[in-house]
């Protein structure tokens, strides 16, 4: 079996960088590390299919020897799908862990009443600021009117 | 006709999961679907076991009618059928228990609507791993069960479970990466992922390449089976999950790893000789695991450590590299799956009833609930290896085959061409095994004495040398004692205790069945001939 050296080197770099990032404390970096190593493994598996060739569809006058090996590609596709699902789950887990770290268990217990009180405060802020805006606009208009009158 | 039943064992749980998801708002319908599916799989496995046992070899089904080395092949031999039937029974028992728990407290933090679908997907993954005839399909089976287990372990998303889940998930991901790289290398070296074909082609590779591939696979499976240096993650992650989930994980997930190791040793690399490594690792797993169990105050953590420790017995049995050793291992796996699951379920009952799982805070349980006392005592003595229970029989089986292998009795038949490790090493591990059994008994008897026999009144200011050295679980979980033990939970636990007793009563026929299963594994050519009846190129 012959393989492309470039792909082997790329896979090795992905492995190396991925493992380094994976050893960090932050969960997001662990996830990024997992993605890098995961892609490294996928590339590695792809390399194991040998050199690229014709599309593996049997037909008249097609030499099976010149075809590329479809099996590793099928493996890689499956592995990519699995990685995608696990990444989505990990992201949810990281978000949850961040949420708990920010608010603690209390985060889940913010009741409707608290939320309504918060909302009311926010709306009050909103109204107050728009009133101030109106007043400011009015002042500018008044000033310009005065200027116009003078002119 | 029966060929069509094989893929059904994976398809039924997957379809059941889809139906259960659609029935999200109707709990009773969900329960009916999942119970029916698991019962059906258990029935199918029983039919297949009867057929496979009668025919003496196995059934291979080419999925989508693609002939074996090209398509996916599903293989059922005696070992797979035994594993599936015991797993299906355990999953069924735990499901009934979980349903009972759900009905009892209508938990806000347990989103019941996703529990059933996820549980069925986990089952599908377990069954798929047991019948995979293809290394990559085995990987897919592992991933199915792992993905489902991530969800089950972090159910409810409390801080404690997220912390435990992160450890578990990252360790599992690393093990999956190992496994996938191993598959890539194996494919690169041999041009196939079909296990039967690999059995022939791997043997043609140079010794050093074989060893690298072999060890890479063993590391991946060793993490899953929680074998000693790779077992650090287990006692930290399992105990935080809800009781039924812990029970299933403890019973089944590690055994899937053990199953994969048995396949690796008997079919993929029957020639290579790692018996000594297995004996050393087995002995260390036994010793380190049980020493960890000694210092735990929390019964869930204590049981997790005994779980790790007792995996050592199975590794020891595999390391004997004899048919008798493998037969004893298979019997021990059956015993351990059922008794460990039952004990974790009983622990769930203790938690509900006593409001804690720590021996420093429990007391007077025997007087409070004699039924619970019986349900704990029987499996605990079973795990500790008291005669006449199956735990005792399994250990005796292992020790006898160990003594046979070490003594060089002509009765021992070796697997393939491998030779057992040095005699003194086998004797040492047998001694460690016997000691481990006694220490397990000590740890469980201590829990029994303090939690069940000690009167509740003595709980305040209790001083004893027994609890001087124990440590509480890191994050003292707040458990609310409910005092109500639903009949369904008790019934499910009682049924599983009865099943462990049945393993004792019918130990003779079961041991013979395990021996026949091990006999099938004596030579890789048996497995190869199931997949390729006309021989393999």
TrEMBL record, chain A:
Localization: Cell membrane
PANTHER family from the UniProt entry: ANTIPORTER SUBUNIT MNHC2-RELATED
GO CC entries: plasma membrane
Family (UniProt): Belongs to the CPA3 antiporters (TC 2.A.63) subunit C family.
Keywords recorded for this protein, A-Z: Cell membrane, Membrane, Transmembrane, Transmembrane helix
Transmembrane intervals: 6-23, 30-54, 74-95
Predominant place of localization: membrane
Protein name as annotated: Na+/H+ antiporter subunit C
Membrane topology value: Multi-pass membrane protein
UniProtKB/TrEMBL annotation, chain B:
Alphabetized UniProt keyword annotations: Cell membrane, Membrane, Transmembrane, Transmembrane helix
Domain of life: Bacteria
GO CC annotations on file: plasma membrane
Entry annotated with the keyword Cell membrane: yes
Location of this chain's protein in the cell: Cell membrane; Membrane
Keyword Iron-sulfur among record annotations: no
Record membrane topology: Multi-pass membrane protein
Membrane-spanning parts: 6-24, 36-67, 79-100, 112-132, 138-156, 168-189, 209-234, 241-262, 274-295, 302-324, 371-389, 424-445, 487-511
GO terms of biological process kind: ATP synthesis coupled electron transport
One Gene Ontology term of the molecular function aspect: NADH dehydrogenase (ubiquinone) activity
Family classification: Belongs to the CPA3 antiporters (TC 2.A.63) subunit D family.
Protein name: Na+/H+ antiporter subunit D
Organism expressing this protein natively: Agromyces bracchium
Taxonomic lineage from the root: Bacteria, Bacillati, Actinomycetota, Actinomycetes, Micrococcales
């Amino acid at each position: 079996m012959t393989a492309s050296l470039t792909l082997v080197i790329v896979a090795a770099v992905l492995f190396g960088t991925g493992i380094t990032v994976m050893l960090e404390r932050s969960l997001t970096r662990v996830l990024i590390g997992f993605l890098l190593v995961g892609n490294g493994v996928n590339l590695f598996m792809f390399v194991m299919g040998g050199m690229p060739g014709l599309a593996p569809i049997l037909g008249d006058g097609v030499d099976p020897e010149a075809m590329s090996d479809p099996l590793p590609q099928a493996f890689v596709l499956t592995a990519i799908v699995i990685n995608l699902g696990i990444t989505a789950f990990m992201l949810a887990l990281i978000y949850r862990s961040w949420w708990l770290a920010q608010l603690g268990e209390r985060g889940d217990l913010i009741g409707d009443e608290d939320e309504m009180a918060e909302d009311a405060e926010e709306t009050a802020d909103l109204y107050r600021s728009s009133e101030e805006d109106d007043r400011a606009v009015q002042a500018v208009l008044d000033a310009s009117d005065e200027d116009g009158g003078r002119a | 006709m029966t060929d069509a039943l094989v893929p059904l064992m994976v398809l039924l749980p997957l379809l059941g999961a889809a139906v259960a998801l659609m029935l999200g708002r109707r709990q009773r319908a969900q329960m009916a679907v999942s119970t029916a599916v698991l019962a059906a799989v258990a029935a199918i496995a029983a039919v297949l076991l009867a057929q496979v046992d009668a025919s003496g070899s196995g059934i291979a089904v080419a999925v989508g009618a693609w002939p074996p080395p090209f398509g996916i092949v599903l293989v059922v031999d005696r070992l797979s059928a035994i594993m599936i039937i015991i797993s299906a029974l355990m999953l069924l028992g735990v499901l009934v228990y979980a349903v009972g728990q759900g009905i009892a407290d209508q938990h806000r933090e347990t989103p019941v609507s996703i529990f059933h679908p996820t549980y069925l997907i986990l089952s599908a993954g377990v069954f798929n791993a047991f019948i995979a005839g293809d290394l990559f399909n085995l990987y897919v089976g592992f991933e199915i069960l792992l993905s489902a287990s991530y969800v089950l372990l972090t159910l409810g998303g409390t801080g404690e479970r997220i912390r435990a889940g992160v450890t578990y998930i990252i360790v599992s991901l690393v093990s999956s990466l190992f496994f996938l790289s191993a598959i890539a290398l194996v494919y690169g070296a041999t041009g196939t992922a079909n296990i039967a074909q690999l059995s022939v082609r791997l043997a043609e590779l140079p010794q050093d390449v074989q060893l690298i591939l072999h060890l890479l696979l063993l590391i991946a499976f060793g993490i899953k089976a929680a074998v000693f240096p790779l077992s650090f993650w287990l006692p930290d992650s399992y105990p935080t999950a809800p009781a039924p989930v812990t029970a299933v994980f403890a019973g089944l997930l590690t055994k899937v790893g053990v199953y994969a190791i048995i396949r690796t040793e008997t079919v993929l690399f029957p020639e290579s000789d790692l018996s000594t490594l297995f004996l050393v690792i087995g002995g260390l797993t036994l010793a380190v695991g049980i020493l960890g169990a000694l210092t735990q105050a929390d019964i869930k953590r204590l049981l997790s450590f005994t779980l790790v420790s007792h995996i050592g017995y199975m590794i020891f049995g595999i390391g004997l590299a004899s048919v008798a050793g493998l037969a004893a291992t298979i019997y021990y796996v059956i015993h351990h799956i059922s008794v460990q699951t039952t004990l974790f379920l009983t622990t769930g009952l203790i938690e509900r009833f006593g409001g804690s799982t720590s021996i420093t805070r429990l007391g007077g349980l025997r007087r409070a609930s004699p039924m619970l006392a019986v349900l704990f005592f029987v499996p605990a003595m079973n795990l500790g290896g008291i005669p006449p229970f199956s735990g005792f029989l399994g250990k005796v089986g292992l020790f006898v085959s160990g003594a046979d292998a070490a003594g060089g009795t002509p009765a021992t038949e070796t697997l393939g061409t491998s030779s057992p490790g040095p005699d003194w090493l086998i004797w040492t591990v047998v001694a460690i095994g016997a000691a481990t059994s006694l220490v397990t008994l000590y740890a469980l008897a201590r829990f029994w004495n303090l939690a069940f026999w000690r009167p509740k009144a003595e709980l305040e200011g209790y001083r004893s040398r027994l609890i001087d050295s124990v440590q509480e679980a890191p994050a003292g979980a707040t458990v609310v004692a409910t005092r109500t033990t639903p009949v369904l939970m008790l019934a499910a636990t009682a049924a599983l205790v009865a099943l462990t007793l049945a393993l004792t009563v019918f130990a003779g026929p079961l041991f013979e069945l395990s021996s026949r299963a091990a006999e099938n594994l004596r030579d890789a050519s048996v497995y190869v001939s199931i997949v390729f009846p006309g021989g393999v190129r």
